[in-house]
Design goal:
Layout: H1 2-21, H2 25-56, H3 67-76, H4 81-112, H5 118-146, H6 153-188, H7 193-209, H8 220-237
Helix pairs in contact: 2-4, 2-8, 3-6, 4-5, 4-6, 5-6, 6-7, 7-8
Amino acid sequence: MEFAREAVVLVATRRDHLLVSIQPKGEIVSNSLLTRLGAACGALYVIIAILANDTLGSGSPDSTASAQAIGAWWRAHEVTNADWALAFVELFALLCFPIFVVVLAWVLQRADEGRTWLPWAVLAMGLLSAVVKLASGAPMFALLWRADNGISDGLAAAMTDMNGAAFVLTWAIDSVMLAAAGGVILSTRCLPRWLGWWALVTAPLLLATVPVALSGPPTFLLALIWIVATSITLVVRGDRAPATAPAGIAVTA
């Protein structure tokens, strides 16, 4: 019986290898390239968004400043073509994030094989976070458009606060995405286990920082590092499945 069981497992393994080998080579290359391109959007989002945001917001007062200070800065700030260019560069970065989320959820769903709802939670929370991120840019675009038209202190401060509040809100949403992703990674080992642990540790820290966003530690940086690390890992691996032992097939007497 033991010999028969091993023989069935060997036949099943060779059958799977045969199915993979007869898949058109061009399709394999195409899928791998698309996966890598989509995964690279995660690192592009973080790097470009940070650089563009720091450059565009250089010297501008944040939400902790008084309404008078915020309004005075925007009225005195001369909006240039470079400001608009940087704003659209940041918009491009934000559009990269949902693409990365879709690729990540797809990889996790393939590894999970429909056993849990966690990959769908990653997809839902990631896309929701992307929507909030994109919406947070609307007040800033309005400020750039109306800053030289004598905008009031209260309105300028309110728009600045809307942008900051949306950013903090994404911490709570991203914490759920990270927790779900960490659970799938640790249960399936589709990605390095340290990425799973990093996600599970960062998730509660990110959520706990929301009420103390103005004075708490910048835990969102841990999430950004995780996105970059996961993006790079997926780019290196492509759509290759993790190496796992073939599942045995029960043989009854």
